[in-house]
Amino acid sequence: MTSNFKPIRKAVFPVAGLGTRFLPATKAMPKEMLPINDRPLIQHVYEEARQAGIEEFIFVTGRQKEMLEEHFDYQPELEQTLTSRGGKEDMLEKVRSSEMPAGKLFLTRQPRPLGLGHAIWCAAKLIGDEPFAILLPDDLVLHEQGCLTQMVDVYNQKGGNVIAVKDVPKEHTKKYGIVDIGEKEGNITQVKGLIEKPNPEEAPSTLSVVGRYILQPEVLGYLAAFERGAGNEIQLTDSMAKLIGDQPFHGLEFAGQHYDCGSRLGFIEANIAYGLDDEEIGKDVSTLLTKYK
Ligand code: G1P
């Protein structure tokens, strides 16, 4: 779709998190390398970003995260071994599915875990002065048309800022950014306000922010103030809230099932769902599940 708005070319992937909920699995391995079906979380979101037309991939990493860079590199030994064994074209395809084109991966570090807003601010120089996307690898959305692609469509109509949103039970508002809902137009909601992790009785609605964002670069100016918010962290939500009123701000209730892979239950559910959705093993996964009813 053609649009008058600047294209979304860059995406930021905050991957500096410690992954404490998955210890001991994440003692030496980044949580973003945990696999859902046949690929790590980080590759799922990378592929979603590519489908949405993203050209530059910015990782905000930290200590012990080198494996993430390796995963997106060229692996000549592995390719040679597979080639020399012959007839392994499908395997080669799999290896190459996470080879990032030269000059497209950018790395910056978040030295201390000061919050999601701080992580994004660490990428400010690489983002520059253009609108950009953020994808949190903990959040997966299973749908043929990726969540970010759906959001880019909304952005191309409305401009400004677009976030992915979904309804949650009232008792869960404390886990998410929550939207103060304005006018609704089908699955698109005007965002009147945003609050990070409110108690149910203070929450303006039950519409929560899912980890997909298209934001204008002005948000970086607000983040630079390093103001602490919920949990004494520098929250992205607080800086996003400051854009409201000055710029269009919409929430998209996206199509597809969302999985919170940052929790063990969500992670297991995602593995079941992606397994069932797999062309090769889907039927067998379904049969397997009958054993556990
Ligand atoms: C972050 C955001 C929150 C959002 C959530 C989505 O929270 O701060 O607004 O709803 O991601 O996954 P976190 O999960 O890092 O606590």
In short:
This protein is of the alpha/beta class and 293 residues long.
Describe this structure in words.
The chain is α/β, with parallel strands linked by helices. The protein has one domain (10-292): Spore Coat Polysaccharide Biosynthesis Protein SpsA, Chain A, CATH 3.90.550.10. The chain is 31% helix and 24% strand. It contains 11 helices and 13 strands. It has helices at residues 41-51, 66-71, 76-85, 89-96, 116-121, 124-127, 147-158, 218-223, 236-241, 264-276, 282-290, and strands at residues 10-14, 35-36, 39-40, 56-61, 105-109, 132-135, 139-142, 161-167, 177-185, 188-196, 207-215, 249-253, 257-260. Strands 5-4-1-6-11-8-12-10-9 form a 9-stranded mixed β-sheet. A two-stranded antiparallel ribbon has the order 2-3. Strands 7-13 form a two-stranded antiparallel ribbon. A hairpin with a 2-residue loop joins β9 and β10. α10 crosses α11. It is globular. Bound molecules: 1-O-phosphono-alpha-D-glucopyranose. Residues 116, 136, 138-139, 176-177, 196, 208-211, 235-237, 262 line the site of 1-O-phosphono-alpha-D-glucopyranose.
